[in-house]
Amino acid sequence: MEGLLWIGAMVGIGALIGGVTNSLAIHMLFRPFHPVYVAGRRLPFTPGLIPKRRNELAEQMGRMVTEHLLTAEGVQKQLHDADFQANMKRWAQEESRTLLHREESLAEFLETYTGSKDMVDQAEEAVRTAVQRRLYMWLQAQRAKPLKELLPEEIQNYSETRIQQAAYYILERAEDYIQTKEGEKQLKHFVEKFLEGRGSFVNFIGSMVGSDRVVARAQPEILRFLQDDTSKVWVEKRLREEWLRLQHKPVAELEERLPVAELIEQIAEETTAELPVRKWLEEPLNTWAPRFEDEVVNVWVPKLTDAAGRLLAERLPDILQTLHLDDVVKKEVQTFEVSRIETLVLTISRREFTMIKYLGAFLGAGIGLLQGIVVVFVM
């Protein structure tokens, strides 16, 4: 009976020592949080293991996240997953459909996320600037080419038909002008200037005859010249030659003679005015956007989602490298309170830690049992 008491005592003491030792070891992982000093000397094993090695732990966790958990290959695999892509398209379509039926305007919606209050003016200026930039880029690329290469065939054919009409128009306008009072006055001025520059004798004859009589004789002749078919053929020929010569000039040479900047600015202004930018931005979305719903939701959103996914997958390694996620994790872990880390670890591993305590008690009891048996036999 005495032997059994010895064995029972040994088992109980061993179990107590094993359980308390493991429990103390678990608590020493976290506690104490700070070094403990006695008589100016720091006690060993203070602070606990995790508080003491928090910086190293943070660095290792950062490496573990970037090298093993959140890797570019893993995220790319997720982005290429068919189910993930389908879910993203479905989510984007639902969000875009909701957006198109909002009661607020597009300007108000954008202002919510950008904070800009002059979105309409900014949009119009952006359209105007984009049109100007595209026109300048196009013009720069065509500067060495002759004008003929830039004109569509329809315009060239149209210009050929308009040259004859232009010749008739010029002669008719000249004929009408010559018969007006202003035309007669201008013709008289030309005659007087002509006589002044022809010497004293011609000037004397002119003064005897009178410039009015010269104009009266010259005006019918000028009208006959303007009405003659030969004159029409000659003017048409000259216009056609000038037009052909103009077509063979490089754009750069024509650019020097034309107010290109003013023309481009005018085109940009008219283009901006024709586009309903202000209407699209200021009117409620549900008044005009739903008519584009089918095309936006079923065509553009899937295309944009696929394009965004491909671009993100291609650039993901650079993005992750730029984000320095290991530093982010390291800094976050370093800012954690040790008590928070303790609570987090214990919450996750409480059952395992309890089993470790029981295991220590079981091993201690086993060792105590062996010791008790040895003591009994020795006694």
In short:
By secondary structure, the chain is an all-alpha fold.
- Helix percent reads over 70%
What is the number of beta strands? 2
Question: Roughly what fraction of the amino acids lie in strands?
Answer: under 5%
**What is the strand arrangement across the widest sheet?**
1-2
Could you describe the largest sheet, including whether it forms a barrel? 2 strands, antiparallel
Total tally of structural domains: 3
Using the alpha-carbon principal axes, give the shape: rod-shaped
Question: Please, how many helices?
Answer: 20
Stretches with pLDDT under 50, minimum 5 residues: 199-209
Subcellular location: Endomembrane system
Transmembrane segments: 6-30, 358-378
Family: Belongs to the UPF0754 family.
InterPro entries: DUF445
Tell me about this structure:
It is found in: Endomembrane system. Keywords: Membrane, Transmembrane, Transmembrane helix. Belongs to the UPF0754 family. Its main location: membrane. The protein has 20 helices and two strands. It is mainly alpha-helical and 379 residues long. The protein folds into three domains: 133 residues, no CATH class; 75 residues, no CATH class; 102 residues, no CATH class. It has a two-stranded antiparallel ribbon. Helix 5 crosses helix 18 and helix 10 crosses helix 12. The longest helix is centred in the last third of the chain and has 41 residues. It is rod-shaped and about 165 Å long.
